[in-house]
Known about the structure:
The protein is mainly β. It has a domain of 84 residues: Immunoglobulin-like (Sandwich), CATH 2.60.40. It has 1 helix and 69 strands. The strands form 3 sheets. An 11-stranded parallel β-barrel has the order 7-8-10-12-15-18-20-17-14-11-9. It has a 4-stranded antiparallel beta sheet with strand order 66-65-68-69, with no helix packed on it. Strands 63-64-67 form a 3-stranded antiparallel beta sheet, with no helix packed on it. β65 and β66 form a beta hairpin. The longest helix has 22 residues. It is elongated. The N and C termini lie far apart (107 Å).
Amino acid sequence: xxxxxxxxxxxILIPFLFNSVSAQSAYLWNGSAGDHDWFNPANWTPGGVxxxxxxxxxxxxxxxxxxxxxIDELNFQGGVIKGVGITxxxxxxxxxxxxxxxxxxxxxxNAVLSIxxxxxxxxxxxxxxxxxxxxxxxxxWGGAIFYNEGTFNExxxxxxxxxxxxxxxxxxxxxxxxxxxTLVTVEFTAGTTKQVKxxxxxxxxxxxxxxxxxxxxxxxGSYVVDADGILEFFPNxxxxxxxxxxxxxxxxxxGGTYFQGRGITINNEYNLSxxxxxxxxxxxxxxxxxxxxxxTLETIMNAVKVEFNSGQSIFIDSLYFSAGLTGNHAGIAGSxxxxxxxxxxxxxxxxxxxxxxVIADSALVTVTDRVKISRPFLNxxxxxxxxxxxxxxxxxxxxxxxxxxxxxxxTISQGSxxxxxxGIYSKLGTGITTITSSFINKPLSILEGNQPxxxxxxxxxxxxxSPGSSISNGKLTIQSxxxxxxxxxxxxxxxxxxxxxxxxxxxLELKSSVEIGGSxxxxxxxxxxxxxxxxxRVMTYYSYTGQFDAISSTGGYTFDIDYHPDHLLLRVESIxxxxxxxxxxxxxxxxxxxxxxxxxxxxxxxxxSLPETEFVTLKxxxxxxxxxxxLINMQQQAGRYSVQxxxxxxxxxxxxxxYSISAGxxxxxxxxxxxx
Length: 676
């Protein structure tokens, strides 16, 4: 009974044993029959024809597939496999050789292809599994197409290309996942005679290194660029359209010498916190796109135009126009509002079309060459004008701080609308600045400086005119062919630290007639104690009408004004010893004013008004929000107050600081700048 059972088990196991042995069959192509026929057993060692569970090594010669075949493994070391088609279901090692002339090859969904040498594709390749590209270049020719439906992993140790042997009609379709993983450069070549076109309809991720993509195309997939990655679209991009999202913290570079047609069009989400570089021609972010953030935007060559028509606000961390440009070549265009949050280095170029450009309150603008803007321009940041002409075709509105540092005579050419200042305009450079339009100094704004300013239109002041600067006093000259209008809600502010004009106290020279109104604020600095009867020639003009409505001062001194046909004098009337500064009537509303001077070094004065008795806290913070010092922390009666902030005593570094006041229900924060 036991012997019968044993024989039965043997007969059951024989088929499994046979199949197990059969799965291990390995065939080597020898081509000895000379007919290139895959299905001729004489061409294989051992004799026979490889089946679907077999492993094949092909090292030389040519095989022609009259019918499609399926094998388990392929070790392709050289030669040519051509014909109808071949499918690999497990492992494919490709170190050399040419595959699928006039036919196709398929990598099964569970299979792995390792590319470890220079290989050629002359036909169609369908990858449903995983490709690991470890070394060598990939050559496509004769209209070859590589379809990645699975995962393609770049694992190179040196720069390589996916290139064309000949012809311009080769394609690489990424319909799955394409991973650029190492620090090297991978390039899909472009040219008029040799070209491989990359189409991304899946997900292409650049983890490290550079992925350079050529030629025209329309993408529906997504691009992800990690911090150490660079995605570059380069020469001969004829109408490349990106319909999928672009995101990440790395760099996207639009390179080359030109983009024909519409260039690059982005039709979907572009949310890049890294860097965007434009090295070619026109780039278009078109209607229906969702541009959240384009990171750092840099234009290099002098014929680049970037156009935004997404229908929403565009956030740019930093925007760089190339240095050395002449004229108005590099440009930003389109109907979108552009918001620059960190840096604008504007070294020549143009901003055009119907959108608005907004400089955020923490951003820094530097202009060193001629620039042009034909759209409304709103500055909330620090605008550092070092050189070049500013040419505007629309309104320019300053809510931040403009540092006019030009050393040669320059012009702010305004096509339409006034130059409106809600912030600070500092005229510091030795060059004469000419503003071709009207200049409106709005309430609480500051016009300061110690150099000449020509205003060809009207000049209206409802804010503060503060001659001098934190570096030196000197003379602020305003020249206009129209009467200067000092309105009733405006003020002239003077700092006096001695008796020498231009050194110890500044002067305001108006090369025009003036309609005087508003207030005169006087701050005594450096413990200066003038004598009763001392006079200070602080203002000159061609002629005048009207008088100041109010005079206030620090240090317990009372001043009066002597009006003369072409100048006025401040005269010390008495020493009152009254602090706070209280005029005939108490303030009607709470207000804190912009510090003066600003920028300052090392000290500045902060003034505020209380309409009623309140507990007042006045603190200074750095730009990160850390507290620097407390200036006031006490109950104060209704009135007008001044407090001095001395940064030198605290050994503070140059930069932007915040001062915050809290008085009952009133709260307000303003910025000031320390320049050492």
